[in-house]
Amino acid sequence: MQHRVPVAIVGAGPAGLLLGHILRAHGVDFVLVEHRSRDHVLSRIRAGVLEQASVDVLDRYGLAERLHTDGLVHGGIHLQVEGRRTHIDFEDLVGRTVTVYGQQRVVEDLMARHDELGSAVFYGASDVTPSGVDGDAPRLEFRHDGEDHVVQADFVIGTDGYHGVCRGLIPTEILDVAERSYDAAWLGILADVAPSTDELIYALHPDGFGMHSMRSPTVSRLYLQVDPTDDIANWSDERIWAALQERLGTAGWTLTEGPITEKSITPMRSSVASTLAYGRLFLAGDAGHIVPPTGAKGLNAAIADVAMLGEALAAANGGSDGLLASYSRRALERQWKIQYFSQWMTDMLHTPGAETPEGERPFRYRSRVGQLAYVTGSRHAQQTLAEQYTGLAIE
Ligand code: RFL
Ligand code: PHB
Question: Is residue 296 in contact with ligand 1, taking CB distance under 6 Å?
Answer without folding.
Answer: yes
